[in-house]
Amino acid sequence: MRILVLSQYFWPENFRINDLVAALVERGHEVTVLTGQPCYNIVAKPDDGPPPVSYAGARILRVPIVLRKEGKVRLLLNYLSFVASGSTIGLWQLRKQKFDVIFSPQLSPVTAILPSIMVRWLWKRKLAIWILDLWPDTLKALGVVTSPRLLALVGRLVGFIYDRCDCIFVQSRSFVLKVLEHASHAPRIEYLPSWSEDLQSPDSAAFAPEVERRPDLFTIVFAGNIGETQDFPSLVKAATLLREHSDVRFIIVGEGRMAAWVRGQIAEQQLDNIVMTGAYPLERMPSFYKHADALLVTLKAEPIFAMTIPGKVQSYLASGRPVLAMLDGEGAAVIAESGAGCAVPAGRPEDLADAVLKLKALSASDRAAMGKAALAYSRAQFDRNTLIDRIESTLADLASTARRPSTINASE
Fold this sequence. Notes:
- By secondary structure, this protein is α/β, with parallel strands linked by helices.
- It has helices at about 15-25, 70-85, 90-95, 115-125, 135-140, 150-160, 175-180, 230-240, 260-270, 285-290, 305, 310-320, 330-340, 350-360, 365-380, 385-400, and strands at about 1-5, 30-35, 55, 60-65, 100-105, 125-130, 165-170, 190, 220-225, 250-255, 275-280, 295-300, 325, 340-345.
- It has two domains: about 1-195 and about 385-400, Glycogen Phosphorylase B (Rossmann fold), CATH 3.40.50.2000; about 200-380, 3-Layer(aba) Sandwich (Rossmann fold).
- About 40% of the residues lie in helices and about 15% in strands.
- Helix 8 packs parallel to helix 9.
């Protein structure tokens, strides 16, 4: 197949869509990626040169956008600029491209799908989206939008988008009812959780040199986005409660909008039990996980986040390390069902601190048993090849029903 992936975020930004593109190319498909200039969750250094024009054999086309910086106005301009550039400059860049089907991951913002809808309409190709973040619920939960009227307007926009998709993948079964709330007709919906990346086992990786090796400490590693969704105030509070336990430390691997705030709290409260490393490429994660006695995942205490399984859960399970979670709903259920560790309610730093001490008090063999249970559950429920098979099969089905030739020439 010739597949167009249209995503606001792509390499060197660190998202699972990178892995999917690489897998599709490896399976013999011709993949073109239309994306923005990298400015979020970047894992390449600024002196690495201009943004890459290819990745794992896929061609990358980039459109200019307003780069993300601090402040809501700048963030809004970032969102709107991708819609504008993707729907104009992006269409021009695609004018002689041939593709059979379109795939778009839907994170924040939902507006990033609008260029995909334009391409679907002009090229008469089927569009599949993968919902990883529910709007307007996330906006409400984070307090970004509080006006009921404005939330209703965003909800109508979401319905407009869903109604123009030929297949909607959802990362959580709880998302299905939310999709049906907004769609005016019953779309094709398929459950597609995130998969466990095909990474080296931490057991065979070298220790990350960026972190001091301290076998005398109980080390909890958090890897991923440092944002409002992850409830870092509660994580910092838990670290504050544990500061008298000199044999416990938190390692935070990643960057994000809350990173500067966390660094400020570390300095202000003199929290020497939190170490921040910055962001690193996905393939480096096993070397950081190797330091971990437990891996930490957190989400804010909001109903919408209780419906979400954070992508890092799958990565953590596949590492064969115990998992410590401060979240509700489906994510917590996965931890409990797998026997991979322990989960405490979202927004409860006191409970998180207690869980750290309880996990630390277990024998090494008991924690190793949790790690084995995590790995077994990962292989059974979140196998990468099985889930990518599902995407590939659905895209092939959609491509087989495309309605007309897939090229638009400049003269049309």
